[in-house]
Amino acid sequence: MQTVFLMNAVWKIIPLLALLLTAGCGGHQVQYSPLNNPVTPTGEAVTEAVEKRDPINPDDVRIFVTQKPEKPYLELGVLSWSTNAYIPNEETAFRLFKERAAEIGADGVIILPSREQGNNPPGLYGYRWMASSQSTLTTFRGLAIQFVEE
Question: What is the pLDDT of residue 18?
Answer without folding.
Answer: 44
